[in-house]
Design brief:
- With 55 residues, the protein is mainly α.
- The protein is built from two helices and no strands.
- The termini are far apart.
- The mean pLDDT is 85.
Length: 55
């Protein structure tokens, strides 16, 4: 699977279409807010948001 990842650029335009074509990718719609957690900063930010909403 690692061989499918591009050396440069975004996997959205290279890897994901190939996985869809090979029927190796699944997804489902959600009606709730969704957010990617790609960096430690993203995790920190979402943790702060969750705590703020709980107060």
């Amino acid at each position: 699977m690692r061989s499918m990842l591009p050396d440069e650029g975004d996997h959205e335009t290279s890897t994901l279409p190939r996985l869809v074509q090979a029927q190796q990718l699944m997804g489902y719609p959600v009606d709730e807010a969704w957010r990617a957690l790609n960096t430690p900063r993203d995790v920190y930010d979402i943790e702060r948001e969750i705590v703020a909403q709980a107060q």
